[in-house]
Design a protein that fits this description.
This protein is an alpha/beta fold. The chain is built from 13 helices and 15 strands.
Length: 417
């Protein structure tokens, strides 16, 4: 693992030197403007997640673009409310394209992501002169970079396979952990978390038995009491969930009310509202996060996290927005173009500096290769001082898994234009 990261570091250092040399002359793109359409829920039960994501992309566009990058490209991000619906997403996509947007960003909902991939493919086939590039920052369904892989889709978050394999590997090293309960939202993402995690357990931790596996309708004001009672009755030593938004908040609140002590392993406990709910647990049950970052992230994010909180009063948790903007700016600088087709071609296989170090877009399926942390909810300390939602608690990293160790072989058959 160390060798791979070191080699990537040398390659990125070389690219940085080349960029510096090329930056000696004025960028041919200096002063150019690029508009990005952000399509996610801005109203409804997931609105707080969508609005935080929109503000984060807007913040990163301003912080990294313009005079702050050798490309000299100014980026603006406009929000389009899809209300969490694939149908509304397609309406928003059409409106954005008609208004001249050539870059689309979306993340909340793999069903939505699937619909956007299909629509972008059709549009670009029919109107190549108005090609659109879709940046997926959170929809984790592996199908999107497998059976449905597309040259015009780039995922900049680790997918469900990568996260479930990281978690299964972590479970394998935990002495005495022999049983787990799965609870997920009943749509593509939740179903994939269940399926892929069970497969990963079989491979890496076959001694850990699944003693419960349930799904529930997403964002319906679910009463979690019956689920929590069954979890308690099962004797499970861990609860794994891919739930997010209000469904995760309500689950945490119910676990607190029922005085459950089962450790919780979740994908999205850093998202708005959940840290405050967790702080109310008063350490009643251990909580772990499986994600590409953690609360006290160092490097280029550290100062930006503080600035974002000062400007918005919210936590900066959508770290993928940094990678997305950095990726586009790097590709535009070296393609010497803001044309989506030329930028997509440059991104394919591209290596660049992400928020957590060197990362590369796999040229075969356009999945960004990035590592995954398993972190633990704990009080802030000198080593991990950044507090989540001003609670005095943070997600502190326990183990990091390199992308090469948690990825599956590529099965994509991507059609290139």
């Amino acid at each position: 693992m160390t060798t791979r990261r070191t080699s990537l570091g040398w390659m990125v250092a070389g690219m940085g030197l080349l960029a510096t040399m090329r930056a000696g002359a004025a960028s041919p793109l200096a002063g150019a403007s690029v508009r990005i359409a952000f399509i996610d829920p801005l109203t409804g039960p997931a609105a707080n997640i969508g609005r935080n994501g929109l503000r984060t992309w807007q913040f990163m566009a301003a912080a990294l673009g313009g005079d702050n990058h050798s490309a000299g490209v100014r980026m603006t991000v406009a929000g389009f409310d899809n209300r969490g619906s694939p149908e509304e997403s397609l309406n928003a996509l059409k409106a954005a394209i008609d208004q001249g947007f050539r870059y689309i960003v979306q993340g909340n909902g793999s069903g939505v992501a699937s619909a956007i991939v299909d629509a972008v493919e059709r549009h670009n086939f029919r109107s190549p002169e108005r090609a659109v590039l879709y940046i997926n920052y959170a929809a984790m369904d592996p199908v999107l970079t497998q059976e449905k892989c597309s040259f015009w889709h780039v995922r900049i978050d680790a997918d469900t396979v990568m996260k479930t394999q990281a978690l299964a590997r972590f479970f394998a090293a935990q002495s005495g952990l022999e049983s787990v309960y799965l609870l997920n939202q009943n749509y593509a993402h939740g179903q994939q978390v269940s399926q892929r995690f069970k497969a990963a357990l079989t491979r890496f931790a076959p001694h850990v038995k699944v003693v419960g596996d349930e799904v529930h309708p997403p964002f319906r004001g679910q009463d979690f009491s019956p689920f929590v009672q069954r979890i308690q009755a099962s004797g499970a030593q861990a609860l794994v969930t891919g739930n997010w938004g209000v469904d995760l908040q309500d689950l945490v609140t119910c676990m607190i009310d029922k005085k459950i002590e089962t450790p919780l392993y979740a994908y999205y406990p850093s998202l708005p509202g959940v840290p405050v709910a967790l702080a109310n647990a008063q350490r009643r049950f251990p909580v772990y996060q499986v994600a590409c970052g953690h609360t006290s992230q160092s490097g280029p994010l550290a100062e930006l996290v503080q600035k974002f909180r000062r400007e918005t009063g919210e936590d900066l948790v959508v770290y993928a927005a940094y990678d997305g903007i950095a990726m586009l700016l790097h590709a535009m600088r070296f393609a010497e173009s803001t044309d989506a087709g030329r930028v997509a071609a440059r991104i394919s296989g591209m290596l660049f500096k992400g928020f957590n170090g060197p990362v590369q877009v796999n040229p075969e399926d356009h999945q960004l290769q990035k590592g995954v942390y398993v972190s633990r909810w704990q009080k802030v300390d000198a080593t991990y001082p950044v507090s989540a939602e001003a609670t005095g608690y943070t997600f502190a990293p326990l183990q990091y898994f390199e992308a090469a160790d948690i990825s599956e072989p590529v099965v994509c058959r991507m059609r290139r234009p």
